Amino acid sequence: MKGGSDEMVAKKNNLITRLNRIEGQIRGIKGLIERDTYCDDVLNQIAAIQAALNGVGKLLLEDHMRSCVVERIESGDHAVIDELLVTVKKLMK
Amino acid sequence: MKGGSDEMVAKKNNLITRLNRIEGQIRGIKGLIERDTYCDDVLNQIAAIQAALNGVGKLLLEDHMRSCVVERIESGDHAVIDELLVTVKKLMK
Amino acid sequence: MKGGSDEMVAKKNNLITRLNRIEGQIRGIKGLIERDTYCDDVLNQIAAIQAALNGVGKLLLEDHMRSCVVERIESGDHAVIDELLVTVKKLMK
Amino acid sequence: MKGGSDEMVAKKNNLITRLNRIEGQIRGIKGLIERDTYCDDVLNQIAAIQAALNGVGKLLLEDHMRSCVVERIESGDHAVIDELLVTVKKLMK
């Protein structure tokens, strides 16, 4: 993700805001565990964090594919496809 | 998760240690994004955190099913199955 | 899943109907591939089948947990929890 | 997937073989359910089919990205990225 344009700065701030929230949720879970909170409640928090993290991943993937992937393919650098496939397969079910 | 027994304390410490690591990884990703790191590298970090978070979820689910779920079923409280199903379905693909 | 009661028969028929549909979708995909259909269309069919298969899995898991799992725990056979954990972890993300 | 080259034919045959196997597994599960087989065994079969179906999806995605996606980007048709993102997000966790 290249800095500079307002749009890029807005995207970065959005991602940082989401990650701050996730970081807070992780700290929250630690507190729940330290206080012996009922496990089912903690598991539901984990499911919520997974969903939030997936959201960040999808935003990043989208930005990556619309910028770097297109640019590298257009410049004849097809190795980006190999790299992208490895990453996408890790994010797939 | 009930406190008290050495085993329970060890389990809690294991979960807290894992969550501390995940918290650090989340902070790490924020730094990568702030420094405009290549997206593919960030995406791979996200996949690693998802795997680590899944690991915490599986440990918690295991402990929950071996303790609270068994105890509540044995005491005739089958509502725990409804509750568990809702949670497990959120964690399923 | 025990046979006999109307409810059980209805559940079985529901599962068989869903699996028949999935079987037809699989055959459909084979036809798409044989006719060199645009891959993106085929991938979307695969995502649809995954969702349908998840639906069958969740129905089965629900029925299993409400019947066999409860019965075996109530009869003191806690080995069912070990078995269930192995299976649920395969179905988790 | 374009037909014609030996490599393409081999890829198609590989996919068809895998899908034939999955189709057989689906029929197998129907039989297990009809015979009131223990649910846990059926659930494990479903997990195996999910893994096999994911395998087919990953092969197709790989071939799609190396052929159509590259060709359309190189010809200036960036709409393929929008399309690919929709599909990949369905296949993601």
Automatic annotation (TrEMBL), chains A, B, C, D:
GO MF, any single term: DNA binding
Gene3D superfamilies, per database record: Metal-sensitive repressor, helix protomer
Entry superkingdom: Bacteria
UniProt cross-references to InterPro entries, sorted A to Z: Metal_Tscrpt_repr (IPR003735), Metal_Tscrpt_repr_sf (IPR038390)
Alphabetical GO biological process terms: negative regulation of DNA-templated transcription
Entry coiled-coil feature ranges: none
The protein's name in its UniProt record: Metal-sensitive transcriptional regulator
Species of origin: Paenibacillus mangrovi
